[in-house]
Each structure stands twice: as structure tokens, then as C-alpha cells.
């Protein structure tokens, strides 16, 4: 019944801005003299935005430039999300807006990519007559063939899920780029079976990408002037690469030297250059190790910020969610972060309210966990039952919508209080900020983020995009720090 866009109506405008990474992103103009134009819109998580960059690259090699103007498009792709019911509804509404466009330009091709394509497969062609092409997350190499099929007057579908595909060799076309920060996909799929979650069904089995190609991509970005990379995966802490796993060579049992885990990958990416900041998302509480935390501590350029979704503060609910940790395990991981990295390490969470059978006391446990951790930021949702998930099969979605919404608004206001408290702690301190560009409100102000991922705004003076500056923080709101550059 819900998605982030609806959830964040509860939030003030400032918080909405902080969440733009999860809202729609639209392709920008590229002009390399290709004969046809692709317009691509991405919904959902950062993985989808990163995939759209791979799709643009594949399409670019096959005769397409990207455009930000719908009217100019020969092909429209929507890269979709299935995480909550409302996310799919948003895409269906968007599709209905294309009808008039298609009437004016009958040769216009409309394709659905991503998680909704994978979940609904050819059913989408029947339900949404305007759709010509359906491609799941592992089928993007096949897009040129699918486009040809549509050019020949047929509908085209490929929702094959792969155990190997990582698109390691494809150099993404950076979309919506500020030229300073970029995402690098380090793995795909998810082997966890959180009972509420559709991702294992839409993204397939977990697989890790060759570390050499990750490091090359990071180095290449640095050479092009980028100063921050975010390593992406649904569960980055379970990153594990071995040549054997990737069928490149047979490993002797004793030869574990070729295996690269997440801590080792972080270390390698951090060594690309001390001026290249490294971030990562998402960490799973069951898998984040002290080795990862010590690696963060050891490298100045690995940011002190961990997105560690709890989902709930109650152990019975966590068990029903199949998260495979309980409240005390989660608290132990938070304590380890505070002890090893320090109190100023940013921690954020995802929370779901109103999961099946959740009682008022269990909801209070989520609030008390929030009080314990004092998250800097959280993405908060109410439970939306998804077809095919374990929860849909095993449990009744029995919490009335008004109670789900009331609980959600309670955790949102608690989070706002904590965000403000955490930001107030930074007032009077000096922060190293990577400048990302002008602030949204004025070109006299610049905007960047500190290591803990907090947005910092300050008067421009001589600083420019891509610089590291020291900012004395003088004021804050729930979402932003304000200050001035000091020499
Ligand atoms: N891999 C990440 C989460 C990816 S999905 C992790 O394990 O933390 C992003 C978030 O969407 C989840 O953390 C969860 O809070 C939320 N979510 C997923 N399925 C949902 C559902 N059925 N209803 C409401 N929120 C959901
Ligand atoms: Fe979904 Fe759980 Fe995998 Fe995250 S770890 S993507 S919540 S199944
Ligand atoms: Fe949505 Fe798929 Fe990401 S369901 S959250 S786009 S992995």
C-alpha cells in the first residue's frame, strides 16, 4: 500500500531532499552523434540507478544517445522497483501518462526494466498494452536484440536470471552525475530471505564482482576527477570473490590467498588514492564484522558512516522477518561501531512498522532501539505485503492501515528528534567536507557532505566542486549542517 514517496509526505521538505537518492532519476542528454534517442527513468534503490548507467552504456554502443526530453525519445525505458505496492503503482500511473505521447508518435517504443519487469514478466505486456519490451535486471546485455525484435513489430521479453552476470566489463555511462561522486556495483542479487522482501525474487542469487574490475573502475573515476565512490550491494558485508567461484581457475583447497572478502575489498579501493573517498551500502547486521570496522578505522578516506538497517527493535518480529539476528546481536554491532570507529560514526537504519502481528509493546521496542542507537538518519516505511514473499505465504497482514500509519508517524518524529540531537553535537566542530556543487537554494552557497554523510552548506568564497574544505559548523537543522570554511 505504500512506498517511500508516500511515506516521506510525513517529512518536512528538507528531509525529502535528503532522500532524493530513492526517488525518480531521469537520464541526461548525451550527444555522441547516435541516430536514436533513449529516455530512461529510474525508480527504487541505488542499484537501479547504477543499472540504468549500465543500460545507457549498452544502448550507447548500439546506436542510442540519451535524452532528458521525453518528446525527443525514440525509446522510453522505465527502470522499475517492486519493493512496496505503491512503488509499482507509481510506475503504472507513469505508463498511463505515455498514452497521449504514443498516439502522437506510434513508433515510440516503451520498455519496462528492473524489478517489476522481473516480478511480472510477460504478464506486464497483457496488463499494460503500451509496453513493448520487458527486461529483467540480468537481461540488459540482450537489450539491443530485444529492441530489434520490437523494431520488427513483435513484443520482446527477457527475464532470465543469471548466477554469473555482474556486468563487470561494462563501463557505465554516468547519468545525473555531479562529476564528483559515483556508484560502483560490487555485487548483485541477494541470498537472504527476509520474509517481507521481494528482492531475492527480482534480483536472483547473490554474486560478487571481480575485485580487479572494481578497482579499475574506481581508479578510472579518480582519473576523471571523481572524488568519492559508493560501493553498492544489497548486503555488501557478504561480498566474497574467488577465481574458482567465477570459473576462472580451479583453486586448491589450501589456497585461500585469492579469496577477497569485503574488508579486503574496502582496503584495496581505499588504496586507489587517499583523496578518493569510499562509501558503501547496504550493511547487514548479521554479516558486518569487526574486520570491516577496523578497516574503516585504519583508512582516513573510508567514510565513517554505516547504513545498518534494523527493520525492528523486537526479537520476535525480527525472527518472523527472518533477519537472522535479534535485538541484542544488533546492539552488539552498534556497540562495536561506537567502540572501534567512535561516537561520531554516522549510523542510519531502515525500519518497517506494522509487520504482521506486531503488538503495541513490540512497536515500543523499535522506539527504544532508536533511543539506544540515536540514528543520524532513517528510511522508514509501513509494511506492504508483497506477492510471493515468505511473509505473504506464512502470515496474515493483520495490522490495520491506520495503526501502521500511526506507528510510522511515531517513529518518524522520534527519528527527527534524534537527527536534530546528532546534528547539534556537531555544532562548534570542524568537518572535512567534499564539495559536491552549489546548494539547492543559492549559487552563493556550496554544498557537500562530511565523512558521516551529513549535508553541509556554507558560503562559497574560493572553494569549488571537488575540493576538500574544512568547515566550522555553526548551526544545524534536522537534515543539514551550516557553517563557514576556515583556512
Ligand atoms: N538489502 C537491504 C534492503 C533493501 S530494500 C537490507 O537488507 O537492509 C530497502 C528497504 O525497504 C528495506 O530495508 C526495508 O526496510 C524496506 N522494505 C522492504 N520490503 C518491504 C515491504 N514489503 N514493506 C515495507 N518496507 C519494505
Ligand atoms: Fe531484502 Fe533482506 Fe536481501 Fe535486504 S537482505 S535485499 S531486506 S532479502
Ligand atoms: Fe526496488 Fe529492486 Fe531496488 S525492488 S529497492 S529496485 S532491488
Helical percent range? Answer: 25-40%
Give the distinct bound molecules.
S-adenosyl-L-homocysteine, iron/sulfur cluster, FE3-S4 cluster
What is the mean pLDDT? 92
CATH class type of the largest domain = Alpha Beta
* Shape estimate: globular
- Count of alpha and pi helical runs: 17
Low-confidence stretches at least 5 residues in length (pLDDT < 50)?
Answer: 1-23
Q: What is the assigned CATH homologous superfamily of the largest domain?
A: Methylthiotransferase, N-terminal domain
- In CATH terms, what is the architecture of the largest domain? 3-Layer(aba) Sandwich
Strand content: 15-25%
What's the layout of helices and strands?
Elements: H1 4-7, H2 13-18, E1 25-26, E2 36-42, H3 46-60, E3 64-66, E4 75-80, H4 85-97, H5 99-104, E5 109-113, H6 114-120, H7 123-127, E6 133-135, H8 143-151, E7 156-158, E8 181-185, E9 187-188, H9 199-203, E10 207-208, H10 211-223, E11 228-232, E12 240-241, E13 260-261, H11 262-270, E14 277-281, H12 290-298, E15 305-307, H13 315-320, H14 327-340, E16 346-353, H15 360-373, E17 377-382, H16 390-394, H17 401-424, E18 430-438, E19 445-449, E20 455-459, E21 468-476, E22 480-486
Parallel strand pairs: 2-3, 2-4, 4-5, 5-6, 6-7, 8-11, 11-14, 15-16, 16-17, 20-22
Antiparallel strand pairs: 1-2, 9-10, 12-13, 18-19, 18-21, 19-20, 21-22
The structure holds S-adenosyl-L-homocysteine (SAH), iron/sulfur cluster (SF4) and FE3-S4 cluster (F3S).
The site of iron/sulfur cluster (SF4) has 9 residues, from α9.
Amino acid at each position: 500500500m505504500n512506498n517511500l514517496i508516500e511515506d516521506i509526505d510525513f517529512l518536512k521538505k528538507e528531509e525529502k531532499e535528503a532522500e532524493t537518492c530513492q526517488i525518480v532519476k531521469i537520464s541526461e542528454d548525451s550527444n555522441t552523434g547516435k541516430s536514436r534517442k533513449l529516455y530512461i527513468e529510474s525508480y527504487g534503490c541505488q542499484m537501479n540507478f547504477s543499472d540504468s548507467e549500465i543500460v545507457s552504456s549498452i544502448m550507447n554502443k548500439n546506436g542510442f544517445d540519451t535524452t532528458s526530453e521525453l518528446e525527443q525519445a525514440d525509446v522510453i525505458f522505465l527502470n522499475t522497483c517492486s519493493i512496496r505496492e505503491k512503488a509499482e503503482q507509481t510506475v503504472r500511473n507513469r505508463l498511463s501518462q505515455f498514452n497521449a505521447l504514443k498516439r502522437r508518435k506510434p513508433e515510440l517504443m516503451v520498455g519496462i526494466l528492473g524489478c517489476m519487469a522481473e516480478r511480472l514478466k510477460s504478464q506486464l505486456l497483457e496488463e499494460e498494452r503500451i509496453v513493448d519490451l520487458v527486461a529483467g535486471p540480468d537481461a540488459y546485455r540482450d537489450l539491443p536484440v530485444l529492441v530489434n525484435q520490437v523494431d520488427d513489430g513483435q513484443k520482446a521479453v527477457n527475464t532470465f536470471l543469471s548466477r554469473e552476470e555482474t556486468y563487470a566489463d561494462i563501463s557505465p555511462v554516468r547519468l545525473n552525475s555531479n562529476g564528483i561522486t559515483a556508484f560502483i556495483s560490487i555485487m548483485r542479487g541477494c541470498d537472504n530471505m527476509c520474509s517481507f522482501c521481494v528482492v531475492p525474487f527480482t534480483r536472483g542469487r547473490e554474486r560478487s564482482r571481480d575485485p580487479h574490475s572494481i578497482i579499475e573502475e574506481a581508479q578510472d573515476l579518480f582519473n576523471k576527477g571523481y572524488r568519492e565512490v559508493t560501493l553498492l550491494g544489497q548486503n555488501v558485508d557478504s561480498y566474497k570473490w574467488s577465481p574458482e567461484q567465477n570459473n576462472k581457475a580451479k583453486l586448491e583447497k589450501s589456497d585461500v590467498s585469492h579469496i577477497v572478502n569485503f574488508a579486503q575489498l574496502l582496503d584495496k579501493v581505499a588504496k586507489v588514492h587517499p583523496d578518493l573517498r569510499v562509501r558503501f551500502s547496504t550493511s547487514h547486521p548479521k554479516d558486518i564484522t569487526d574486520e570491516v570496522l577496523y578497516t574503516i578505522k585504519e583508512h582516513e578516506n573510508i567514510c565513517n558512516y554505516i547504513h545498518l538497517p534494523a527493520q525492528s527493535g523486537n526479537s520476535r518480529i525480527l525472527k518472523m522477518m527472518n533477519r537472522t539476528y535479534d535485538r541484542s546481536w544488533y546492539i552488539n554491532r552498534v556497540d562495536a561501531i561506537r567502540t572501534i570507529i567512535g561516537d561520531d560514526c554516522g549510523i542510519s537504519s531502515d525500519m518497517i512498522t506494522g509487520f504482521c502481528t506486531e503488538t503495541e509493546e513490540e512497536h515500543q521496542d523499535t522506539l527504544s532501539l532508536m533511543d539506544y542507537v540515536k540514528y543520524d538518519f532513517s528510511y522508514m516505511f509501513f509494511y506492504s505485503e508483497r506477492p510471493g514473499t515468505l511473509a505473504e505465504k506464512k502470515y496474515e497482514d493483520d495490522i490495520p492501515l491506520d495503526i501502521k500509519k500511526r506507528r510510522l508517524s511515531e517513529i518518524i518524529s522520534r527519528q527527527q528528534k534524534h537527527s536534530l540531537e546528532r546534528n547539534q553535537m556537531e555544532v562548534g566542530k570542524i568537518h572535512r567536507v567534499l564539495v559536491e556543487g552549489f546548494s539547492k537554494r543559492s549559487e552563493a552557497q556550496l554544498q557537500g557532505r562530511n565523512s558521516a554523510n551529513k549535508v553541509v552548506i556554507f558560503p562559497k568564497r574560493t572553494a569549488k566542486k571537488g575540493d576538500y574544505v574544512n568547515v566550522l559548523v555553526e548551526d544545524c537543522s534536522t537534515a543539514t549542517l551550516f557553517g563557514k570554511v576556515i583556512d
